[in-house]
C-alpha cells in the first residue's frame, strides 16, 4: 500500500526539475499523475521512464485560462477524478525594476501568479465534487527574502503566500487544503545552467558555484529536487489532513541567518572580538 494509493494528481511543469521529482515520488507512492508543460518532448521523455498506466501528459501553457482548464478536464477524463494539484510551473528572468522589460514583468506575473490562479480555480470544483483535495504551491525562498535583481520573481513568489492563505480560509470547510513549499537554491538543470558563468569566473564547477550561493547557510549546499519530493508526498497524503495555509521552507536554514553575522563569522570573527 502506497501513501497515495487511489489518488490522482496534476503537476504543472512536471517534465523536468522539481516537478518531475514530485511526479516520480507520487507515482512511487501509488498515485496516478498527469504532468503538464510547454515542451511536449520533455513531458514525453520523462513519462516514458515511468510505469505504464501511471502517467499521462498534456502540452500547454498555464497562462492561457482555456489551456489551464483543459489540463484539469484532461486529468479527470483520463483518470476519473482530481485529488491533488501541484502548481510548480514558473519562470525567473532577472532584471532590476529599471532594467527588466515591462513585457518580462508581465510574463513572470502571468505565469507564476495568474497561472497558479487559473489552475486552482478550475481544480477546486473537481476536488469538492470528490470530497476534497490538496493543493501544493511551489514558491521560493525569494518570496520571503529578496534576491538581487529579481524583483518580479520575488514579487510573484511572495504573492503565492498570500494566495495560499486566502484559498485555505475560503475552502477549508469544503475539505480543500492548500500549502506552499518554498525551496532555497535548488540544483535543477535551470539553475545549474545559470551558474555556468559564475563557475567559470571562480575557476570551479557548477556545484562549486552553488556552494558560493549557500556558503552562509547552516547547510552549505543546494537542495536536490529529489529532496523536495518527500514533503510534497506528505502534503498530498492524508497524513497531513490538518495542515493548511502553511508555507514550509526547504532552504538549508538560510532564513535563520543574519547576513551581517554570517559575513563576520565567515571571517573567523565573533561579535566584540578585537
Can you walk me through this structure?
With 274 residues, the protein is α/β, with parallel strands linked by helices. It folds into two domains: 8-186 and 223-256, Rossmann fold (3-Layer(aba) Sandwich), CATH 3.40.50.720; 187-222, no CATH class. The chain is built from ten helices and seven strands. It has helices at residues 17-28, 40-47, 65-79, 102-129, 151-171, 189-194, 196-201, 206-213, 225-236, 259-266, and strands at residues 8-12, 32-37, 55-59, 84-87, 133-138, 176-183, 247-250. It has a seven-stranded parallel beta sheet, sandwiched between helices. Strand 2 (32-37), helix 2 (40-47) and strand 3 form a beta-alpha-beta unit.
Structural features:
274 residues; alpha/beta; Rossmann fold; 7 strands; 45% helix; globular
Task: Explain briefly what this protein structure is.
This protein has 274 residues and is α/β, with parallel strands linked by helices. It is built from ten helices and seven strands.
